[in-house]
Specification:
- The chain is 53% helix and 0% strand.
- It has a domain of 41 residues.
- The protein is mainly alpha-helical.
- Helix 1 runs antiparallel to helix 2.
- The protein is elongated and about 45 Å long.
- The two termini are 18 Å apart.
Length: 59
């Protein structure tokens, strides 16, 4: 299995943030009036992936 280098992993993760512009209806997103539990769970999952990439990417 091919390992991603840190720059490639960060690029991949940052591209995933582009999906935050897709909203179900008005009021969702970071600037919206409310969040759902799944919104927060998505950010926690992305943070965990970034932390894992950094942790396992160390030499």
């Amino acid at each position: 299995m091919r390992r991603l280098s840190l720059p490639h992993a960060l690029l991949t993760t940052s591209l995933a943030f582009l999906a935050t512009s897709a909203v179900a209806h008005e009021g969702h997103g970071l600037s919206g009036s409310h969040w759902h539990a799944t919104d927060v769970l998505g950010f926690v999952a992305v943070a965990a992936v970034v932390a894992a990439v950094i942790w396992f990417g160390r030499k």
